[in-house]
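User: Predict the complex with adenosine-5'-diphosphate.
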Amino acid sequence: MSVPLPAAKRLFGRWWRSQSPARQDRFATLGPLLSVLLFLAAIISAFWYLRNEEIEREIESVKRDTELTQQQVGLRLIQNQEALIRMARDMVERDADPEEFVAQAVAFARERPELTHLSWVDARRRVRASHWAMLYHPTPSGAQAEPLLPVESRVNEPETTFRAARDSRSPVYSRSFVDTTGAPVFQLQVPLVQRNAFNGVLIVEYSIDALVRHFVPADVAQRHLMSVLDEQEKVLAATVTTTPGQSSRRALIVSDAPLTPALNGLLLRGQGWRTSIGLVNNTLFWMVVALSVLTVWMLLGTWRHVRRRSQIQGALVQETNFRRAMENSMPTGMRAMDMEGRVTYVNAAFCQMTGFSNAELVGRLPPYPYWPPDRIDENHRLLQQELQGRSPSGGIEVRLMRKDGSVFDARMYISPLIDPKGQQTGWMTSITNITEAKRIRDQLSASHERFTTVLEGLDASVSVLSVQQGELLFVNRSYRLWFGGDAVGHQQLAGGAAGTTPFVADAEDDNDPLSGLPTQELTETGANPREVFVESLQKWFDVRARYLQWTDGRLAQMLIATDITARLRAEEQAAAQAEKAQVTSRLVTMGEMASSVAHELNQPLTAITNYCNGMVSRVKAESIAQDDLIAALQKTARQAERAGQIIHRIRNFVKRSEPQRQPAEARQIVEDAVELAGIELRRRNVAIHTYVAQRLPIIMADPILIEQVLLNLLKNAAEAIDSAQLPTQRRHIELRVVPRHTPEEGGVIEFSVTDMGPGIKDEVIGRLYEAFFSTKAEGLGIGLSLCRSIIESHRGRMRAQNLYNGQQAVGCRFAFTLPVETTVRIDATATPAEGETTPSA
Ligand code: ADP
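Assistant: Here is the predicted structure with adenosine-5'-diphosphate placed in the model:
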């Protein structure tokens, strides 16, 4: 037996382990439930078995008692029958008379309480004598009742029995019947036979009730109900008198036996009801059931409880897994230690960070392996601080060492570990590697430093002002130097430029001038350079403004102001010099034209002389009429006037004057220039054709300077033609003035001078505008360079090109443009001071 038990145990253990935890739980719950139910079934079957046993015993007992009663009653009946047969024989032998019979009957009945009466009936049914038993009182009043006896004419039980006894000549028991008092009785009739002759019968009548009362043994009656039933199973007498209504209750155990030796259809019945183990009435059974139900109920309760627990446990496991996954996934190292500083836990990130394994760290006391040897003292101090809870909440920076000996910077945060009872059990430390962050921070600060160094080192002032609040967000050193720390300088720089929006919003002003403007567009608007003069500094600034989104998202205006005072001064000086050059150039031109001018003046002067000489001789000869004299004088005056006009015009041309732009008509300029050039052209025998388009817009220009350019171009053309000694048909120049529109310049007026000369030589074309470059022996070479600077100062353009006939250059064309927009704008604003921003203009 000892060998298979461990084997079975092992087998069970293997099976148990192969089950899933959920099934194990189910089995663990169902096991007790099943055993309780089995226990209950066992109890029930035990009860059932015992009860069956008892019922069997009871059946046996009832049967025995019934048989006992049957024997008792049967014995009595046989004794009585025999005594009666003896008595009958005796009476027949002695031929007894009725007195004798009564005496014998009295003696007979005295000892037999079961009898009601004894009667002697002869063969013809006449009653010879009758004796009522003493103990039997058929009527309570004591009045004599008639016994029921055989009557020939009547068919009743005594008569039937009488006939049977007569015919059989042997004792016959009657069937039961009811006597006159209503009591159930039966009779025994013993025939009186004298030498085979039937002489009558002796009748004894038994009271069934008395029979039951006296001959059912007392112990039997105590145990069971004994009753006598007739053929219809009607209860005639019983040991227990039942009330009529109750008789219907069926007994559990019934045992029947015929009433021997009467055999007259009467039945002796024994009945038993009681079994000591009635399941339904058994308290013990119900207690067991109740306890089992209670146990089952509690088991079910436990099961539910366990289920709830396991659900909670499942949730807990999930939570734990979640936290573990979270903890493992994060790059933050975690380390727990108890109150003495013993490491109780480290997470994966911590191991990865330090390079030590879990086993190498857990359980260690300080100094920890990840402390750099040169910093043990400091780390001890930090740990003490940590253990005493005095670590700063912002964390502390420490230097840790990896297993391979390399060190890294880390930031450590410490929080207390609290157990479920609310007691502190240790400290939890989280550690982040900040080497990279520190490197980035250092880089950032270095780059910031570089940035500020550059900005601070700038000669230009840089200032950023928030548009809404009007507060300075950034200024550099130059700004501070010039304007100090407040926003006034910024406002001066911004406000000084024409057309700038007053951007500093009043705190109470809800109408933000920039509200609703998309920031993107504003920040992308280009930095239009403006020149601003700051009174207090006596400086000119080139100011570039730009809207940008500040680091906190606010709209801000950045101004970069460069000091251009020196540059402007230089420009002013250059302009002054240019002016001088222009005047000089005009003087030079006039010098060159001196012989032409002299020739030109010579004509009127000669005419005047001739007129004067003619008049003098005619006046001397007195041959002149007054009218002729007046006409001659008028002619003289006209010639003098013409000479004066030439001189006046030349004077105007060479007069030194401030260059001044003013609304001017192209036609007028052209006329003046052609008039001056005419002197030279006539001398050189060159014709000029002029075409000026109708309705040209007014231009904004200095007419003398434009005239100078035109004169220069015409003179060059004439010189080229003259020097080439061209034939007459090629000695002419064309001057055209037309409006034009080009994609790059927009609307312009174009002046062009075309000659039929030899053209510009290839080697000359590249150096055309070079100062002091000339191909002419007496040429100064400053004409064209001056022309171009004049045109460009008017925002125009100048170009030269050769005209070809095949490969042959057949002339050249000099053209310059003057923009029309300027004209339009100036006409609209009409204030010359605002026209150009340069102060020198
Ligand atoms: P200058 O007339 O004193 O030589 P410019 O600057 O007026 O100085 O001219 C420079 C040179 O350009 C001239 O020497 C000449 O060679 C060339 N040039 C100017 N105009 C013409 C022209 N219409 N045809 C040919 N060559 C020209």
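Confidence is low (pLDDT under 50) at residues 496-513, 822-841.
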